[in-house]
């Protein structure tokens, strides 16, 4: 019984990993086709994401988005930020 449970869990893990990779590939392809990374961020949380008086965003969320853009395009400026409400952050992806 224990071996059966372990085999089932292992099979489920492999299936989950394979399906996640297919989705990740589709998302990456869509981002590359657009030519920029679109990041959903919260606005007004200093340290995470915050727009200054000039509208320039800063914070760790912004840095992560810039890092993704640098990894995908070799240019950390190919990012568009979309401020999201707390409710929107639950059902929208962080990067699309």
Q: How helix-rich are the residues, as a percent range? A: 40-55%
Task: Quote the beta fraction.
Answer: 5-15%
The main β sheet shows up as: 2 strands, parallel
Structural class: alpha+beta
Global mean pLDDT: 79
The count of strands amounts to 4
Assigned CATH class: Alpha Beta
What is CATH's topology name?
Answer: D-Maltodextrin-Binding Protein, domain 2
Query: What is the fourth-level CATH superfamily?
Result: Periplasmic binding protein-like II
Number of helices: 3
Number of domains: 1
* Unreliable segments of 5+ consecutive residues: 4-20
Q: Span from first to last CA?
A: 43 Å
Shape: globular
The strands making up the biggest β-sheet line up spatially as: 1-4
CATH architecture: 3-Layer(aba) Sandwich
Radius of gyration equals 18 Å
Helix and strand pattern: HEEEHEH
Pfam families: SBP_bac_3
Organism: Leclercia adecarboxylata
GO biological process, one term: amino acid transport
Keywords: Signal, Transport
């Amino acid at each position: 019984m224990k071996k059966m449970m372990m085999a089932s869990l292992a099979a489920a893990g492999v299936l989950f990993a394979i399906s996640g990779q297919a989705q990740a590939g589709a998302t990456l392809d869509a981002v590359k086709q657009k030519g920029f990374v679109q990041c959903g961020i919260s606005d007004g949380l200093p340290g995470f994401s915050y727009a200054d008086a000039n509208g320039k965003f800063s914070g760790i969320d912004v840095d992560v988005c810039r890092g993704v853009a640098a990894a995908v395009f070799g240019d950390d400026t190919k990012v568009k930020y979309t401020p999201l409400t707390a409710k929107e952050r639950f059902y929208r992806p962080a990067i699309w």
